[in-house]
User: What shape does this take?
Amino acid sequence: MPNIGGPELLLILAVVLIVFGAGRLPDVLGQLGKGVRSFRDEANSDKAAAAPAASSTATAPAPGTTVYCRNCGRPNGTDAKFCSNCGQAL
Ligand SMILES: [Zn+2]
Assistant: This one.
């Protein structure tokens, strides 16, 4: 990996200007930005897609079933917000 300082960046910029032309530079930078953004969106959507699926199976019980405390395992009423034995949020 070569050290890239100010002079090298200017050289790269000059090469980019020559290759793409000064008029297309905003285009090129825009495409670069879009590429980075879509990559980030993809990374985020992967997390977002995985998280709700995991939490819905762990925390959302079907209606009409007993809710068991995750802390002590004691069964609680379906509308209980906290464990009647240890106070753990259900
Ligand atoms: Zn409990």
Summary: Helices lie at 6-20, 25-59. Strands lie at 67-68, 75-76.
